[in-house]
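Input (structure):
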């Protein structure tokens, strides 16, 4: 495989409510960029390290009752491990890093969804990541009805939340995007997968300054 001479690191995150299709798009981007010779690392949140995957299983197990603050801190603990042990080293090598969810999920779910203090949530986001901000965030915006129809049958702890919770989370994501227009690009995720991917490719090619039209 010919490696691209490009050595500028780039950190791209994928966000949206459950069922928005972000994981599918992250995988398509991973395959596309790898095919083009880029060195790409892909992670998911919560998870992607030994410890973070253990935290993930605690967080998503629907048998667990977890208080709001504990939940917030567990997501941050998982993130701190992933950022320090995996994301930063990959970026230091000059690689592209794709992450399926990052701290915007905490702002949207724990901040807007659970109603925790937004300032405190943002402070913890910064502490957990030591200030590592994505270069680009793709927000897959979708209405709740379509998102629910796309979800797996078996629900995890978060997916078992009420509709009104996800309405708040979606609004939260939209508000975060309005506040950070340069970093966060909103994609219409109600479209068929191929069309969503065309939009995604356009945004990423602009960011990486490459032609990915073919
Ligand atoms: P996800 O990996 O999207 O779930 P799935 O494997 O079912 O596609 O995310 C796990 C869940 O955790 C999801 O419901 C969103 C939630 N979450 C938060 O509430 N806060 C966070 O900070 C993160 C990263 C995820």
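Output (sequence):
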């Amino acid at each position: 495989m010919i490696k691209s001479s490009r050595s500028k690191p780039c950190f791209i995150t994928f966000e949206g409510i459950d069922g928005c299709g972000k994981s599918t798009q992250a995988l398509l981007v991973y395959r596309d960029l790898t095919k083009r010779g880029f060195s790409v690392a892909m992670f998911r949140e919560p998870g992607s390290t030994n410890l973070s995957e253990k935290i993930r299983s605690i967080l998503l197990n629907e048998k667990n009752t977890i208080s709001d603050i504990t939940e917030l801190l567990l997501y941050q603990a998982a993130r701190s491990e992933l950022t320090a042990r995996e994301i930063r080293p990959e970026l230091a090598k000059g690689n592209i890093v794709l992450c399926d969810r990052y701290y915007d999920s905490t702002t949207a779910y724990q901040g807007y969804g659970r109603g925790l203090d937004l300032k405190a949530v943002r402070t913890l986001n910064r502490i957990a990541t030591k200030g590592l901000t994505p270069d680009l965030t793709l927000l897959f915006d979708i209405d709740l009805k379509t998102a629910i129809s796309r979800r797996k049958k078996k629900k995890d702890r978060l997916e078992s939340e009420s509709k009104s919770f996800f309405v708040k989370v979606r609004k939260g994501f939209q508000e975060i995007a309005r506040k950070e227009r340069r970093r966060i690009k909103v994609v219409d995720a109600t479209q068929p997968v191929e069309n969503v991917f065309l939009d995604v490719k356009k945004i990423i090619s602009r960011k990486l300054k490459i032609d990915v039209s073919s």
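Notes: The first helix runs from residue 22 to 35. Residues 10-205 form a domain with the Rossmann fold fold (CATH 3.40.50.300).
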